[in-house]
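SEQUENCE-TO-STRUCTURE ENTRY
===========================
Question of interest: how does this chain fold, as expressed in backbone structure tokens?
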Amino acid sequence: MNRTASVPIRLAAAVLFIGLAAAGCAGAGASASASGSTSPTSPAAPSQTASEIPTPIDTPASTAIVVTDPMSAAEATTAPAANAEATKAPAANAPAATAKGATAATAALPAGPASVNLGTAGNFVLLSKAGISTTGTTRITGNIGVSPIAATGLTGFALVLDKSGAFSQSIAVVGKVYAANYAVPTPSVLTVAVKDMETAYTNAAGRSAGATGLGAGNIGGLTLAPGVYRWGTDVTIPTNLTLSGGANDVWIFQISGNLSVSSAKQVILAGGALAKNIYWQVAGTTTLGTTSTFNGTILCKTNIALRTGAVLNGRAFAQTAITLDANS
């Protein structure tokens, strides 16, 4: 064979070798990918990603409120919170919209406070001592409970009692519904959860405030940094409010009067802030206006009312009643 004729043959061999090597790498990659996936029949439980608790925020994770089964031995933590329980993130809550809704007014506080421990109350997204009622098409993501009132305090849910007698289910609830008169161990579980709810309220109310009387109770249009804020008056949110901070930052709002959010207004989360790290301790009533969007855990001494179409990304804990109307 002459030298000139051998060149094309060598080139062809080299191309063939490279092709075979590439095919081998692709096959190995496919195998690695397949081994990393979870089989539908695998006993491993699927992972649950954040909601915390649903959200006028930067990312869907800001709304995540994760709850565990109240009958589980594991105590809920405030960290995986969205989710609300009820979770829903309107597209209008994108960062571009939040920038327009906020003003230059920003409250700067010292290093943020520690989170409020919800204890076993954190296993619920709605928890009430006097009852929960709903009208319209409500959609709740998470467990709800009432105690010491019996299941008669749950109205509008078309409850279907489980064969165990320990909980009910409802087309309006993606989770379980618990009442004080259900089968053991539900009564004792709810008693502890309500006590933990009250303890969390007291804990939030007792924190040292970094700012007092901000805006004379009107905090609409502000951008608030993490911290503890206190008012001896009612608090209103007549225009969008922005809470700006990181994923580990905490906000605690101590309100001696009532809290009200005007219709179609939003509490917006910016900079990675999470709904699970926001606590509204309200001595009076809490009212979320029609089609408003709210973020955080409401720890209310009295009634919590969500008007038609209002969205709550978080939890609602009332020491009296909770009323809903086509909410999520």
About this structure: The chain has three helices and 23 strands. The two ends are 81 Å apart (CA to CA). The first helix runs from residue 3 to 36.
